[in-house]
Design goal:
Oligomer: heterodimer
Strand content of chain B: 15-25%
CATH class of chain A: Mainly Alpha
CATH architecture of chain A: Orthogonal Bundle
Structural class of chain B: alpha+beta
CATH superfamily of chain A: Cytochrome-c3 Hydrogenase, chain B
Radius of gyration of chain A: 21 Å
Helix content of chain B: 10-25%
Strand content of chain A: 5-15%
Distance between the termini of chain B: 90 Å
Order of helices and strands of chain B: HEEHEEHEEE
Number of helices of chain B: 3
Number of domains of chain A: 1
Radius of gyration of chain B: 28 Å
Number of strands of chain A: 9
Order of helices and strands of chain A: EEEEHHHHHEEHHHHHHEEEHHHH
Largest interface: A-B, 34 and 29 residues
Shape of chain B: elongated
CATH topology of chain A: Cytochrome-c3 Hydrogenase, chain B
Shape of chain A: globular
Distance between the termini of chain A: 22 Å
Strand order of the largest sheet of chain A: 1-2-3-4
């Protein structure tokens, strides 16, 4: 174990940010080596919220383990559950009814909007604006209410099951989503007026926390962080799952690589999510919401991998089955872990005052990094 | 040339700030567009969604009869040991032994409201209730017995 306090032999100052610090959005511990105000090195220390979810899953059946994954990246719980359900379906080789696929994608995109909403509010708060937080939560509340009505919970829904979704959508679902989308389109313009165009905000974001495309690839970054550096990596486009190959949407790519580019990618993604929902909401086909599966699911012997695009990037679920009712080994490839590992590259050479703004654009959810 | 750009920047900055102020000003003058739930003052009128998962309850009809056969499907479906079913053997009129429910123990403190037990129940004996105010002074009160005292299995359910 090396020093985490005091000074280095060269006279550089070592400080700790976290694990209990409001700006790290969770129990993240950063050990920062400073030369004056300039950051020389950042080392994230993990393990404060490790719950050994991967090990826990080994003792749960294929129906049971899905609910645990809601507790990893709790802001995109739906998409995590989706990944697990898809992976189990891959092993079972079961065809999911089209209606279930539509419902899944719709709820995924609603979750993505809700997640980006929270990020947008927290991001603005990180750079000192408090009002956007309330505006963001107002819209997020509407989504949460829609979720509550259909899935029965607001954050950890556990609505996806192997073979489809747990229950059919609520009769008022379509109408409420349409009403929300109608209002929400105007709100994004409002966000741009309030925060994106603000000169103070722009000066704090532009040219700060630069990540080159080479580094983004070599650190394994995914999601908005990599796309802001010009790396096309949207799983929904590259390896489409469910009905993503039937909808029209753009992969939002910026080439700036700085904090502002990452901000713009997420704002653009909210608009694209609205576009996807608009295409699907009226076209939900009639039919079953769940394929017939056996009460006790047994996966054949083998290895199964499925990746999805969560609000933070690429989530991979890797199941090794020995043919029993529980997985032999489960591995989650979480987007936050790789994105965090690139933080050193982004913040190195910058000032410590910019660190919080840079970290805000990474959209870190610590339970996702530390499973 | 530099001075011109400097002045342009200053006016651009002021314009951007005024644009932002316009949005906040609009909401300042239209307070009705901000939705705030006045909980707990609105407890009487608060209506939660029908599917809201608050806690597991067992349905009893007016004759104090339930539909639980004690098959332990919910106990097996539960991921974290929330449900414990204690069964007993009843003697049927024909003189045969028959498994029946004695006590349905439900640990609310362990429950994650994943709905898997309700999905697994073959007879629809348990459902999710909308109650969400679970705080108590003693943790023991969270361990509940779901079947009411004196209740028995509804006739015709196997």
């Amino acid at each position: 174990m090396h020093e985490v306090v005091g000074t280095t032999p060269k006279g550089d100052f070592i400080i700790n940010v976290g694990p209990q610090h409001p700006a790290t959005h969770g129990v993240l511990h950063l050990v920062i080596t400073l030369e004056g105000e300039t950051i020389k090195k950042i080392e994230p220390h993990l393990g404060y919220i490790h719950r050994s979810i991967e090990k826990m899953c080994e003792s749960l059946t294929y129906r049971q383990f899905i609910y645990v994954t809601s507790r990893m990246d709790y802001l995109s719980a739906h998409i995590n559950n989706h990944a697990c359900a898809l992976c189990v379906e891959k092993g079972l080789q079961v065809d999911v009814p089209l209606r279930a696929q539509y419902i899944r994608v719709l709820l995924d995109e609603l979750t993505r909007i809700a997640s980006h909403e929270l990020w947008w509010g927290a991001m603005a708060m990180d750079v000192g604006a408090f009002t956007p937080f309330f505006y963001a939560f107002r819209e997020r509340e509407t989504i949460n209410e829609i979720m509550e009505e259909t899935c029965g919970a607001r954050l950890t829904m556990n609505y996806m099951v192997p073979g489809g979704v747990m229950a059919d959508i609520h009769p008022a679902f379509q109408q409420k989503v349409k009403k929300f989308i109608q209002q929400y389109k105007k709100k994004i313009d409002e966000y741009n007026e309030l925060v994106t165009g603000n000169i103070i905000f722009q000066n704090r974001m532009k040219g700060v926390g630069y990540l080159s495309p080479e580094n983004a690839i070599s650190y394994g970054c995914s999601g908005p962080v990599a796309r802001a550096s010009g790396v096309a990596c949207d799983v929904r486009k590259r390896y489409p799952y469910d009905v993503y190959n039937q909808v029209q949407f753009d992969e939002v790519i910026e080439t700036g690589g700085d904090s502002f580019a990452r901000y713009l990618v997420r704002i653009g993604e909210m608009q694209q999510s609205v576009r996807i929902i608009e295409q699907l909401i009226d076209a939900i086909p009639q039919g079953d919401f769940q394929a017939k599966t056996k009460a006790v699911i047994k996966l054949p012997k083998g290895e199964f991998y499925q990746r999805v695009e969560t609000a933070r990037g690429e989530l991979g679920v890797y199941i090794v089955s020995e043919g029993g009712t529980t997985p032999y080994r489960i591995k989650f490839r979480s987007p936050g872990f790789c994105n965090l590992s690139a933080l050193n590259e982004m913040a190195k050479g910058g000032k410590i005052g910019d660190l919080v703004a840079t970290m805000g654009t990474l959209d870190l959810v610590i339970p996702d990094i530390d499973r | 040339m530099n001075i011109k750009k400097y002045i342009q920047d200053v006016f651009g900055a002021i314009q951007s700030l005024l644009k932002g102020m316009r949005v906040t000003g609009y909401y300042f003058l239209h307070p009705k567009e901000i939705i705030t739930e006045q909980y707990p003052d609105n407890r009487d009128s608060l209506k939660l969604a029908d599917r809201f998962k608050g806690e597991v309850v067992m349905l009893h009809d007016e004759n104090n009869e339930h539909a639980c056969t004690g098959c332990t499907a919910c106990e097996l479906a539960c991921p974290n040991g929330t449900i414990k079913i204690i069964t007993q053997f009843d003697i049927t009129p024909e003189g045969k032994k028959k498994k029946a429910l004695n006590t349905f123990v439900y640990h609310l403190e362990l429950c994650t409201m994943c709905n898997l037990c309700v999905e697994a129940c073959p007879t629809g004996a348990i459902v999710m209730a909308q109650n969400f105010e679970h705080s108590v002074y003693d943790r023991k009160q969270l361990t509940k017995t779901l079947n009411k005292p004196g209740s028995k299995l509804r006739a015709g359910i196997e």
